[in-house]
Specification:
heterodimer, A: 191 residues, alpha+beta, six-stranded mixed beta sheet, 26% helix, B: 200 residues, 14 strands, globular
Chain lengths: 191, 200
């Protein structure tokens, strides 16, 4: 999902949120600038769908809820920014603005060639700065390859999952997702 | 300057720093991952060089010092990060590791299409978390435009400077840098000079 700065002018968070209600294209908002987001591929959509299906099933009627694609995340590492994470799990009942989430527990991004570096670098720094986030999961599209950044008592730790039969364990929300389920129906699963 | 992930394995900061001593390509380091940096354009080099030259001349014999291109900046708030800023000014005499600086006063990045978003967002976030930093200046290559982020007593303020006659003010080192000097010899400056000749 490519992002491009739309204008050099500073836009207030309020103007941005108001604009997003009517825009045909989603935008991310960072420090007064607005970046348009391109659409994703077939496999990108399959993977986010697989994640959501599996998570919804496991989270059931518990306190945690799954959000996908067009629900914003608001983060304030130093000033305000808004992203559209691919998939989020949020468990805090007091976090309930209509158009954005501020305290997710788990964030997933499915990597695309044009935005991989943003997901691995910029968003990693931002997501790690959100106190409620327990894990940030990056899922590659073209091969079975999942990087999990987990908050631990000693700081953040990275874990790599890259073979069939492995399972992504998310103890913070009591969910376990086999890699075979994440990649179901994708080209990576057929290789 | 494009960055590409070199490996998905975690690398320690020590191994990264050791590797940079022998590497033919510079790499940035972010939380265990290493990203190669591509080279820049002629105008990128001219602008960085022009800024550095004026800073170096102005700062001769003073406490503050200017560095460019291949001295690392260590930026570690929650994460371990090493970048290579295009130009930085360092005024803290205690900040003097051989291969990096940690407490710069001013940082300049010259924008390239491939890394513009990194400079505008990721690096903005990382730089603003450095307590010593007073200003972060982003200079565009293709038009006379610089975005200046400045620390104020309470927060950060952002201004845009635009047009060939703009002047960049750097209060922390008491210097004024006219755009005419920053953009000297660039394609943009040559186009401006020829259009001004045509008008006369």
């Amino acid at each position: 999902m490519t992002a491009r700065p739309k204008t050099a002018l500073w836009i207030s968070p309020e103007e941005y949120l108001e604009g997003e209600l009517r825009s045909e294209v989603r935008h991310e908002y960072i420090e007064g600038s607005v970046f348009a987001m391109a659409g994703g591929s077939r496999d990108h959509n399959r993977i986010s769908g697989n994640l959501v299906a599996s998570l919804k099933h496991q989270l059931g009627a518990g306190p945690c809820e799954v959000f996908i694609n067009d629900f914003k995340l608001k983060a304030s590492p130093s000033s305000e920014l808004f992203y559209y994470p691919d998939v989020m799990v949020a468990c805090d009942p007091t976090d309930r603005h209509d158009y954005f989430c501020e305290r997710p527990a788990i964030i997933f991004e499915i990597l695309s060639p044009t935005t991989e570096l943003i997901d691995r670098r910029e968003k990693m720094l931002v997501y790690k700065s959100i106190p409620s986030v327990q894990a940030y999961v990056l899922v590659e599209q073209e091969r079975i390859h999942v990087t999990v950044h987990r908050r631990t008592e000693k700081g953040w730790a990275a874990e790599l999952l890259d073979s069939r039969g492995q399972t992504l364990d998310l103890p913070a929300v009591r969910a376990k997702i086999p890699l075979d389920s994440i990649y179901e129906g994708t080209n990576a699963a057929k290789q | 300057m494009t960055a590409a992930p070199k490996s998905s394995l975690w690398i320690s900061p020590e191994d990264y720093l050791e590797g940079e001593l022998h590497s033919e390509v510079r790499h940035e380091y972010i939380d265990g991952a290493v990203y190669a940096m591509a080279g820049g354009s002629d105008d990128h080099n001219r602008i960085a060089g022009n800024i550095f030259a004026h800073l170096a001349q102005h700062l001769r014999g003073r406490r503050c010092e200017a560095f460019m291109t291949d001295l690392k900046l260590k930026a570690s708030a929650d994460s371990a990060i090493y970048y290579y800023p295009d130009v930085m000014v360092v005024c803290d005499p205690a900040d003097r590791a051989k291969f990096f600086r940690e407490r710069p006063s001013i940082i300049f990045e010259i924008l390239s299409p491939d890394t513009e978003r990194t400079d505008r967002n990721e690096k903005l976030l990382a730089y603003r978390a450095i307590p010593s930093l007073k200003m972060y200046v982003l200079v565009e290559q293709d038009r006379f435009l610089a975005v200046v982020h400045r620390r104020t007593t309470k927060t950060w303020k952002m201004d845009a400077l635009e047009g060939p006659d703009a002047v960049l003010r750097l209060p922390p080192i008491k210097l004024e840098l006219p755009f005419g000097r920053i953009y000297e010899r660039t394609a943009l400056a040559r186009r401006l000079a020829s259009s001004r000749r045509d008008q006369n």
